Amino acid sequence: MVKWMALTALALLIVGVVAFPRLGRGPAASAQPAAAAAGPGQVRSYFIAADEVVWDYAPSGRNQVTGEPFAHPFERLMALPGKGVIGPKYKKTIYREYTDASFTTMKPRAPEWAHLGFLGPLIRAEVGDTIKIVFKNNGKHPFSMHPHGVFYEKASEGAQYSDGTSMNRGVAPPGGTHHYEWLVPERAGPTEHETSSALWMYHSHVDENLDVNAGLIGPMVITRRGAAKPDGSPKDVDREFVIGFVEMDENFSHHFDESIALAVEPKSVRKVENFAEPDYLANLKESLNGFIYGHLPSPTMKKGERVRWYLFGSTNFEVHAPHWHGNTVTANHMRTDVVGLLPMGMLIADMVPDAAGTWLFHCHTGPHLLAGMVGKYVVQDAAAAAPAATGGLN
Ligand SMILES: [Cu+2]
Q1: Distance between CA 249 and CA 256 in Å, rounded?
Q2: Can 363 be counted among the known catalytic residues?
Q3: 0.90 exceeded by pTM
């Protein structure tokens, strides 16, 4: 009996030694470590294409902050068509959401998300979920979707570089499709000291500068496990806004030549590399989600609501200082009304507005404000009807 028990114990020990590494640590498990990293949450599917568009940074042709025609020479340089400049319209490639893998019907963007502008669709998940994306490249260059924060295998990284293997890491050729699978483990969500949701981004990372300056960038919000409504948004927040302080260097976009062709006098547009020359600056767009000089569809909320602002920067040489007039926020546990964004930096600011009115929201970096990095947000009295669809020019 003792001998049998000893043999059984020995057998269990051997099985344990052999089997245990397969569960989490041995070579056999390395093909799918992600399953253990995420959790038994939902699969959230998205169908996203890279589409070519002509984007207008200032569609009304007027300064929507002053309410006047563009007058200052710098405003005119940035926002009006004319001799030697391209004007407010540029050829771009942006991420757009579709209803299914046929990519025939675009998914309508809800009115309260009109402020996203040229940003890609908001991808949402809760910790424990899996994000699956079918990506269709309708552009003329190879493009990808490279995510920040979430867990991915190489095939879902969206960036090609030498690491000793030759596999495709998630780049779709022109006309091609790629399937991404991103897992959402705890480390993709907020820490216990943060708000109930975390902000990330995704962007194309084939020729990163040219791709992002072409327009391929979008937001992703991950909500703490158990803290999300069915749509993935945090339960403890009434209203969310995503604002990219997006400096688009159109001089370094895939589409610069095509954009020059949109100018009223294409032959008069000079290509220069000196950052300080007006011909260069005219194509350095300091935008909020692709809008300049007050054209951002105004984020609209009610007094007393729990409002979450998700802010991020883009990929050029830039430092932004988002500033709210009229109300304050809590960001990084600090009460403030100015925050800072480094290139591709991400930040969450929570606001419970107590001052009703239409207020400025702008970058406090002087040259950026001059170049049009300014919009407005609206706080309605609590008794007002539901906030109207934000049409932009209010
Ligand atoms: Cu700025």
Answers
A1: 10
A2: yes
A3: no
